[in-house]
Every structure is written in structure tokens, then in C-alpha cells.
Amino acid sequence: MRQSLAILGAVGAVTLGVSLTPGAAMAQSTLESVKERGHLNCQVGLPTPGFYALDADGTWSGLDVDVCRAVSAAIWGDPDKVEYQSVTSAVRFTSLANGESDMLARTTTWTAVRDTQLGLDFTFVNFYDGQGFLVPVDSGITSALELDGATICVLTGTTTELNLADYFRANGMEMTPVTNENVNVLVETYLGGGCDAYTNDKSGLAARRSAFPDPTAHVILPQTVSKEPLGPVVRQGDDAWANIVRWVGYGMLEAEEFGVTQANVEEMAANPPGPGVARLLGVEGNIGEGMGLPADFMVSVLKAVGNYGEAYERHVGENTPIGIPRAGTLNALWTQGGIMYPPPFR
Amino acid sequence: MAFARQDDDARRGGFRPGALLSDEKTRSITFQALTLAAVVALFWWLVDNTLANMAARSMSAGFDFLPVTAGFGIGFTLIEFREGDSYWRVFQVGVLNTLLVAVVSILFATVLGLIVGLARLSGNWIVATLARAYVEFLRNTPLLLQIIAWFFGVFNLLPRPRDSVEFGAFALNNRGFYMPSPVPEPAFDAVLAVFVVALGGAIALQVWAKRRREATGRLFPAVRVGLALVVLPPLAAHLALGQPLGWNIPALKGFNYDGGVSVPPAFCALIVALSVYTSCFIAEIVRSGVQSVSRGQREAAGALNLPNDWTMRLIILPQALRVIIPPLISQYLNVTKNSSLAIAIGFPDLVSVWMNTSLNQSGRAIPIVAMTMAFYCTVSLFVSLVMNVYNRSVQLKER
Ligand SMILES: N[C@@H](CCC(=O)N[C@@H](CS)C(=O)NCC(=O)O)C(=O)O
């Protein structure tokens, strides 16, 4: 009997000892581990034109990719110290939460549940979007309200599948979802006629359609059925890291507001036209300091990717195959009727 | 056991520190206990650390999300599921879909495997070679590839709903396979009652025929008579009551066929791929089972001038089954686990709607993974239990 007690005691002591030691030793900050590693792990989705496109020699580009490049430039002055991790939308948050990626930039919608229950932090909005439906022109469908009874292709693990269910429920219509986590399989199914419509963020529809064999054979229906503020996300719990991503993004918007471009940034840094530009480019004050970045981090960012407007026009603007006009939309600067309104850099 | 023994020790004179060095039994018990303690502690630490880290990021590990509305639609369900239903309902839908795929695939795979396995043994060179080519080709190609090939290469290429392939009341198109569904009228209950009674009678007949054969050696065609008993009286009742069973026949309406029951293309692709792939392994199991029965048994049966089908049914198969059943169990378990590849083509099985969609939408990784593992574990244990009981009944009984 005494021996069993001794054994129990031993078990107890070991367990107690372990549970008393602090669970997670104070972890290294994300910026420190990124610097130590020498590159940024930036998560994007499966290749999507305009936002995270992959060309034949393996180079990533796009509006979201530019966020990764800008953060890399802010840290090292070099936009190419990025390792892109392309995973399906269904596993994106797990992959970020378990530390495989340092941040994600992949047309991800800011929602309350994601921000408060999944261990994530949204940083800023780099594209205001809304959900729509894509149908073949020859189907003759001209309104989403004609889709009662339709079979609809939708990506799983997205806000898209939730809005789809909401929209049909709210309008008393029926539908059969055809789901997949892989956007390529889904698009293949849609093009093969396996569903009557493909639904996604409207920007995503335009992007996907631009890569179809015959883009003109498909039309985006007029209805916008949801709000999709899309933006980069980081793990919750490292506010300093969230600040870096957030203020690099705001910096690109502020630069557009001040007219600082990729072409004139060096000149503006040498000869700032006013105190606002001087602060943004680190000529006056040192905003980078509070983030562990060099004072002139925005000079590096702008040299690498340009301001927000330049990135927009380069990847998704009217002169690209995706062709999403910006003027008069939510994505225009607040000075031009949009809601892109960066808090002041001071 | 170790603990029982240590109680004896205690009674014999209690714990002496010296025994730790001198007494082998005490030593081994002590080290076993320490190892156990270390394992428990490690596990505890992992769980505790995980929970602490999750709490720090305001992630929840609890099951409180189960009654919450899931908010997404599911393309194929066996029980009613509406967009406003809860995560718990999603789990049920997933479990039933997984079980459906497993059961249907197992049925097809077994029938197909039996046929191919026997064809492998055929004296006809062409039949045997074809069967061999079937087995070698299909079991050496990855299953995932086969599933995707069936989906994109066959079922997704079928005509659109307007140009469906129709055969009678059935229709096949790239949205699925549509079948009529029975609509029983109240009077149909009587037909069912007759059927149940007839079935009971047929079973009793089997038992009686077997007893009589064992006692007197006289044969009775119990199978044929039993079949007639099960089919004819209910049919007569059905006709006499004026056929009280209607059919809901699927018909083209709007975007697609409406009415009847239907399964989506992903289901068809999954069933075909799983059945065909598994049938190869089952065929080999059947072949090896039959070949394991010594040649002398067949020769002896021939010497008694037993007809061929009797030799197979009464002599070879009962002995072959002893070799066949154990590996067959593991194939059945494989089908159940392999059905999780459904996710590749978007069939809403448990892994797809639960481990993937629900996990992503709710963020409750730990409870969701735990429930999924518990389900697969339960099914595996249950299938092995049933098959083991059956196996014991066909094992050689030494008297
Ligand atoms: N905004 C939605 C959906 C995101 C989405 O579906 N993105 C589109 C492009 S805008 C896509 O095709 N992504 C491909 C992928 O993520 O693999 C969400 O955050 O849940």
C-alpha cells in the first residue's frame, strides 16, 4: 500500500511540476524571427490573376502580392525576400495560426468571427469588394433572382458560401451548392457545365474570367449580395507585427494622397514638398522607430511597389485584362469619392 | 497487473528502498510507474499548453459551437438540412454521407471482386488474362487519380440537363443520376406486413430444412421455395389491393430534374472509383483463398461425382472463407477510410463538410478533429468486431 502511495506521489509531483511551469515561454516576436530567418513567409491563395498571379517562371505578382513585397521592402529594403506559400482557402487560417506563415494577403474578408474567434488580426482593407454571380451568356440569365433551383459552384471555407446560403434563404429560393476547396477544380466544373453559376467576390469573378478560354462568353450578374472588405491578416497576439503590416498599407495610400510615386520618391525624399511628405518618407521625425523599422522604410516600399494607386492600376485596373475601374468606386481615395482613407502619418 | 502484484508485495512486508536495487520485481514496477507518469505528464503538458496558447489568442477549444447555426448549404444530404441548421446537424449529415459511400462501395466492391477473383481462376485463357489485366492495371494506379479521372473524365462530361440520357424513368446528366422514388399509399402497409410474415416463414423453412438434412440426409430445395415465398404472396397482395404504391418520377423543370431521388456526379465518381479499386484487392483475396484449398479436396469431390457448383459451394468456398475473411475485413476498413478522398471532388462526406468546411468557418480545430477521429475509430472497431464474430463462426472447429 505504501508503495502505491509513493508511486501516486511521484506521478502527482511530476504532473504538478509541469503544470506549474509557464505554458508557453515568452515567444520571440514575429519581426525578430522573420529577420533571423532572412525571409518573410507570406501566404497567398491558389494562383489568381490580378491578386496573386503566378507566371511561367515562378514569379508571383498582384495587388496582394505587392503587400508581401512592400513588407519585405520595409524590413530589408528589398522586396524579394519573400517566400510565397500558396494554399487553398480552406486551410488558410490554420496555416497562419500554426506559424507556417507570418501573414496572409489573399483576398480575405474581414469578419467578426474571423477577427475575434480564430486567433487572427485583420490589419487594413486593401480592396472593398462584394459578392456576385458569373453565368454563361448563352444561359440567358440576366439577374441573380432568376437563379431559383440552380446548381451553384462555390469555394468552401469562404464567406462566399455563407453569403450564398443567406441570399437564397432571404429570397426564398432553392439552390444546390457544388463545393470544392480548390478553385481550379471548381472553375473546371463550371466551364464543363457542372453548375449553372459560379459565385465569388466580384473582383475574383473578373480575375477568374480573364483567364477563361473565351472571357466574353461569361457575364457577371448585376446584383452585389454582400460586403467583402478584403485585407491582409496576421496572427493575433503580436501587435507590433500587426502595426508593421497595417502602416505599410496605410503608407501606400498616404503616398498616393500626397502624389508620391515610384518614379519621384527619391526626389521627394531629397526635397520634400511639405511636412506631410517629409514625415511619410522619414526625412522629418522617425515613425519607423516605433515599429522596429528604419526611418526611411516608406522610401524602400515606394521604390519597390509604388503607391496604392500605382499597384491597383498595374494589377487590376482598367488597362489590365481584369479591368476593374477604380474611379467612382469604394476603392478610390476619399479625396476622390471613395472610402480609402488612411489615418494620418504623424 | 503490475499494480495487483505490488499489492501482494505490500502485504508481504511493505516497501524497502533497498528492494529498488536488489529485487527485480520492485525495480521493474518502479520503472514502469515512472514511465507511465512521464507519459501522462507529457500528455497533460501538451493539452495544458495548447489550451493556454489558444486562450491567449481567444480561440475556443470547447464544444459550445455545436448548436450554433453553420450558415452554409450542403449539396447532398440523406437527412433534411436547411441553411439555418446547426454545426451538430452538419456533423450528422457528414457521418451519414460517409457511411453511405462506405456501404455502397463495399457492396459493389465485394460483388465485383468475387466475379473478378473467380475469373482469375478460370480455365479460359482469355477470361483469366482479362481479369489479371484489370487487377494489375487498377490496383497499381493511385486511388486519388482514379477518383479525379472518373469525375472529370466521365461524370462531368455527361450531357447537360436539357440533353440528359434517359432510360425509362431514370435520367443521367452532368448534375447527377436521377431515379424514381416510391410513394407508398396507406394500403401499402398491408403489402409490407405480408412481406414480413413471408420472410419469417422463409427463414423458418431454411432452419427446418437444415435440421432435417443433418438428421436424415434428405434434401429440400429450401432456397428456391423460400425465394418464391418471399416474392409471390406480397406480389399477390400488391395486385389484389390495386397496386397501392406510386412513383415520383424525376422530370426536367427549370434548371434541372425535379422529383425522385438523385445522387450528384461526385457521388457516382466516388462510388465507381472506390468499388473498382477495392475490387482488385478483393479479387486477389478471393483467388488466394480458393487456391489455398488443397487440390485433393477438389479431386475427392470429383471422385464422389459431385456437380461442379456443389463442389464450389459446399467444399471449396467454406474452406476458402477462412482464409478470405481476415484480409477482407481490412479491405472494408480501407474503403471507409479511403472514402475521405471525396474531398478532392467535393462530395460532402464527413472530412469535407466537417474537418474542412466547418473547421474553417468555426475555427474549432480541436473539438472538430477529435470528433472526426472518434467517428473513424468507432466505425473501424465496430467493423472489426462484426467481422471477427463472423470469422470465428467460419473458423475450423476442432472436435
Ligand atoms: N473573400 C472571400 C473569398 C476569397 C476568395 O474566394 N478568393 C478568390 C479570389 S478573389 C479565389 O479564387 N481564391 C483562390 C484561393 O484562395 O485559392 C473570403 O475571404 O472568404
Automatic annotation (TrEMBL), chain A:
This is General L-amino acid transport system substrate-binding protein. Belongs to the bacterial solute-binding protein 3 family. The keyword Signal applies. Residues 41-268 form the Solute-binding protein family 3/N-terminal domain. InterPro entries: Bact_solute-bind_prot3, Solute-binding_3/MltF_N. Residues 1-27 form the signal peptide. CDD domains: PBP2_BztA. Keywords: Signal, Transport. One of its GO terms (biological process) is amino acid transport.
Automatic annotation (TrEMBL), chain B:
It is a multi-pass membrane protein. Its main location: membrane. Keywords: Amino-acid transport, Cell membrane, Membrane, Transmembrane, Transmembrane helix, Transport. PROSITE patterns: ABC_TM1. Signal peptide: none annotated. The keyword Chaperone does not apply. It is found in: Cell inner membrane; Cell membrane. GO terms for biological process: amino acid transport. One of its GO terms (molecular function) is transmembrane transporter activity. The chain crosses the membrane at residues 29-47, 59-79, 99-119, 140-158, 187-209, 221-241, 261-286, 365-390. Residues 95-387 form the ABC transmembrane type-1 domain. InterPro entries: AA_ABC_transptr_permease_3TM, ArtM/GltK/GlnP/TcyL/YhdX-like, MetI-like, MetI-like_sf. GO terms for cellular component: ATP-binding cassette (ABC) transporter complex. The keyword Membrane applies. Belongs to the binding-protein-dependent transport system permease family. HisMQ subfamily. This is Amino acid ABC transporter membrane protein 1, PAAT family. It comes from Rubrimonas cliftonensis.
